[in-house]
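Checklist before submission:
- one chain only
- standard amino acids only
- sequence pasted in full

Submission:
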Amino acid sequence: MENKQLTCGFIGLGLIGGSIAKALRQRYPDCTLIGYDTQKDSLDLALDEGVLNCALTEIGEEFGACDYIFLCAPVSCNSENLPSLKAFLRPECILTDAGSVKTSIHEQIEAQGLSGQFIGGHPMAGSERTGYVNSRALLLENAYYILTPTREVPREKVDAYRELVSSLGAIPLILSFREHDYVTAAVSHLPHVIASSLVNLIRDSDSGEGIMKMIAAGGFKDITRIASSSPAMWQQICLTNGENIDALLTAYIESLQSIQKEIRESASSRIYDFFDRARIYRDSFINASSGPIKKSYAVSIEIADEPGALASIATILALNNISIKNIGILHNREQTDGVLGIEFYSPESIEEARRILTPKGYVVHEKK
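Returned file contents:
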């Protein structure tokens, strides 16, 4: 898609809306981007960064010029904003959203008589950090972007939108909205419930001295990382996709009861099979380039436990133009020295970091 006159509007400019807007600005520098948000600070920052051409604190006629309008506010707010937005829509405009649950927005679209111009959207990307300030164009890179078009929207419009999504570096996947909600309940919504329940279990089971919290190892931190996400967002997801989450949660509880029985009975071979089946299936998609569970391009580096050790490595990488996605000391070791964990954006960065750091005496271990 090489449309230099592309005009897009955003209702809500948080993490996802901001990231889509930045990706559009990067891919189509001459496009016109219009944004509405209740947070004026986000709008001001987007204007200062040159992402938005027009910032609005009220939904107005400016949206009448849009080819696409992205509904990126919370699910309940998207529904509330539809009547106001409808007054300014031109027939050629495609409405889309970025929500994690599709059934409710499809029902609202049908109720407003907008089914002929709606293609639901869900970029399978995100972060524990929220808000426009944490948005970035690369958030969409190699992420599945699920599209849920209505039956009424013209096929050529679906093809054009799929092409637009591809041009931003994401991988479009077309599903029905009901299939979407069941699939995401399994691979996204249920894991968040499980992660939060594990964290709450440790909180409630820990000693007064907080020993469990203190020695929580990498495995526990990895599996519960997503429990740091927005509680308000996950409250809304559970309320809007409760039927699917409930069905899958029931199946999960049954699987836990099954392995609990095998552990109680010391059923050696069945316990082994339980872990082996999971290992085999998990390894079958560990190297996938995209999807809900993405490969992490991370390394661990042994460093001296002394001031400036972390800064030295970060400086070396920065001077060689290697971008760092995440960095921190791993505190779950018994040795005197520490381990520095670094996550990169690409596998090429790992090889470049190893090439630069190894001659300087650092031992770089890639995390699988």
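Reviewer check: The mean pLDDT is 87.
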